[in-house]
Design brief:
Order of helices and strands: HHHEEHHHEHHHHHHH
Strand order of the largest sheet: 1-2-3
Strand content: 5-15%
Number of strands: 3
Shape: globular
Helix content: 40-55%
Oligomer: single chain
Distance between the termini: 27 Å
Radius of gyration: 20 Å
Structural class: mainly alpha
Mean pLDDT: 81
Low-confidence stretches: 97-102, 244-256
Number of helices: 13
Length: 273
Amino acid sequence: MTLDVPEIPRFRSVVNAIPIPYWRDKVLLEALYLTASREAELSTQTIPWDLLHKRTKPYGLYLTFGIKDFEMAPARDHEPAKIEKILVIQEACAKRMKGKKKLADDTELTVEETANYLPQQLREGYVKNPASVDPLIVKSFLGELSLKSIALPCNPVFEPWTHDLLKIISKTGTLSFKLTRFRMWQIQRQWLSSLLKPKNKRNERNPLRHFRLTHLAGEYDFNAYDISVYSGWTMGTTAGMFGIQSSNQIGQYVHLKWKDYLPKLLKPISDFE
């Protein structure tokens, strides 16, 4: 990706300067950046050409979210633990699936057959009541869908843009957008022209994802495992990008959770000013 990544203060100042009548555009840019999403992962709309050529789907239709409590260890003994409110977003990853379990045809699996693809602790409950297991989780273990979870502090001291995400959730009931990915590209080009090079095949897509992951690695000290959780990459892909040799099977044995990286995001935004 041939992109120059702006410093955090410069990037945020450009986004914050978007006029109030275009607030929806501003929140879209904030959401793409904070979640390190590909455009399709927040989109609920598509175009006939994409459907005809079996291209990227509107994965925003799968997006779910919730507010969680994150308990911070006290700074000193005998002090109470501090609870931070966290917005946790689950997205379907818009990428080519290589799962060994992905079915080659449209054969329907029975409940018992499907259960065999699930972790042991979920199988018995799934057989008794398939609705007890999140269907997105089932799809992910069948190799039909890859999921990622992004956690964002709600406290504006750490992340003021989360407030905008919560505001649009309260207005629309979702964090996905009724836009095609092409329209999202246009909006990014419209407002971020001062930060983006002229369009070419290598830099016209997902620039905010690239900005965010670069900032997380460089300014928030995210390591390879943190980046994997946040981006939805496989562990093998991430290890290779950091120059680490790893087995192709590493993703099957490393359990990644958003709670592992969340403390690194609890860094005052004022530290970057």
